[in-house]
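Example S7 (structure tokens).
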């Protein structure tokens, strides 16, 4: 027997909106069956009541489990950012048939903060009347909202698989069984489950209900135990692939002999050198969308050339601040991988440079995105590195290059040098600036000096 885990018609309609994006024809029939279980008279088969359908459904009324690839029942949704949306609906479920047949339209968000997202109504509709919904929506970045939605969808999937109704606030039993199911059955990482529990706690607060169960000691201990056991599976984990100056030069050779146009070659080479020397996050310099630019996207207007350097204005860095960040990158002498010269050459190739365009616009008119850049990066490095290295290689590896170089010479660099260059305000820089053999050698020499000095002072 299938028991719907949703509280009311509004929750079912949210499922319906997502379901029709997989297969509208199949979804139409199954959604009507779900609606009939919510006692909508016009959708109940003749001679049967909604209660009878729930208690003893016919075989045709049973909603089959979802299978990835084709819609067969209540959907299990993946990443929210990859899925288009349709128009919002009211709590009353009016015009449900029209909603089911509504044409799916693309719904993409390119800005970091927005004040309105219709699909968040399921979360925000329980806010107190005195709360400002627009400001609360803008309080979190869109990536955070997307993760919250993923957490809800994972909860929905668990409720369907376990025939467990979702109630707010969630009980200790529900949260513990969900956590175990996510770790064991779904094989989610401990960090993902920890993030989901944190997001569920925020959703409790937004729904204005008690969230203390999300901070339960045993729940935290469960996730910590999963993290400890995972250490045995990652004994040989080496982290992200390190990009060296030598590899940059070799990849430059691969770019030069590729079949791309001269302009596209310069776009790829400039993106690589700028990301390397500036320790940029790829999302800071590359557009999020291949076809459109947002207010936050880097444009030619944000780049100012000086005599021996250029200033790049990052309007919305990871840690948002008024005015953003101004990053100065300098000409590199003696090496054929200068980011400033690469930018100047790129600008000269763009015959009619529009200051509102992305510097990294391909000859096709599309913007270079981080995903496309990473794909090419793996291709350029493939002749020089093994498969394991290529699997770990991403565009974000460029950010770690200079911190690693600085960390390799602790005799002439300091911690603050790494923090300032990478714009870190926390201990996160240690992930990138791993200690080298040089560091241990210098410490060992200090140890030997202290021992020798102590011995010389000890009386015979």
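Recovered sequence:
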């Amino acid at each position: 027997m299938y028991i719907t885990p949703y509280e009311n018609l509004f929750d079912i309609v949210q499922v319906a909106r997502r379901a029709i994006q997989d297969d509208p024809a199949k979804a139409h029939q199954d959604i009507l069956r779900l609606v009939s279980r919510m006692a909508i008279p016009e959708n109940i088969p003749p001679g049967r009541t909604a209660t009878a359908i729930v208690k003893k459904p016919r075989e045709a009324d049973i909603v089959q489990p979802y299978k990835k690839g084709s819609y067969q029942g209540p959907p299990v949704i993946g990443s929210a950012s990859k899925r288009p949306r349709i128009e919002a609906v009211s709590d009353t479920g009016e015009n449900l048939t029209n909603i089911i047949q509504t044409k799916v339209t693309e719904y993409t968000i390119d800005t970091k903060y927005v004040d309105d997202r219709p699909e968040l109504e399921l979360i925000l509709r329980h806010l107190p009347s005195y709360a400002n919904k627009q400001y609360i929506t803008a309080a979190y970045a869109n990536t955070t909202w997307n993760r919250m939605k993923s957490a809800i969808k994972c909860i929905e999937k668990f409720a369907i698989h376990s025939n467990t109704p979702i109630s707010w606030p969630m009980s200790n039993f529900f949260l513990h069984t969900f956590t175990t199911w996510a770790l064991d059955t779904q094989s989610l990482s401990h960090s993902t489950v920890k993030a989901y529990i944190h997001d569920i706690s925020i959703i409790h607060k937004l729904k204005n209900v008690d969230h203390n169960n999300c901070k339960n000691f045993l729940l935290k201990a469960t996730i910590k135990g999963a993290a400890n056991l995972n250490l045995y599976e990652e004994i040989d984990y080496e982290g992200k692939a390190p990009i060296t100056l030598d590899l940059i030069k070799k990849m430059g050779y691969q770019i030069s002999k590729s079949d791309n146009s001269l302009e596209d070659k310069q776009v790829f080479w400039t993106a690589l050198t700028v990301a390397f020397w500036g320790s940029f996050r790829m999302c800071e310099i590359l557009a999020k969308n291949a076809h459109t630019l947002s207010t936050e996207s880097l444009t030619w207007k944000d780049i100012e050339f000086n005599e021996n350097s250029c200033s790049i204005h990052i309007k919305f860095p990871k840690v948002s601040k008024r005015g953003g960040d101004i990053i100065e990158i300098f000409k590199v002498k003696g090496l054929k991988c200068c980011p400033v010269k690469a930018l100047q050459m790129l600008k000269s190739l763009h015959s009619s440079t529009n200051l509102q365009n992305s510097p990294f616009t391909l000859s096709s008119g599309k913007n270079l995105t981080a995903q496309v850049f990473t794909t090419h990066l793996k291709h350029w490095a493939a002749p020089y590195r093994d498969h394991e290295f290529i699997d770990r290689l991403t565009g974000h590896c460029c950010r770690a290059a200079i911190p690693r170089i600085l960390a390799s010479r602790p005799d002439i660099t300091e911690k603050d040098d790494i923090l300032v260059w990478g714009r870190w305000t926390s201990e996160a820089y240690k992930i990138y600036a791993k200690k080298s053999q040089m560091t241990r050698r210098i410490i060992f020499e200090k140890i030997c000096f202290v021992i020798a000095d102590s011995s010389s002072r000890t009386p015979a």
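Notes on this example. Strands lie at 303-305, 309-314, 325-330.
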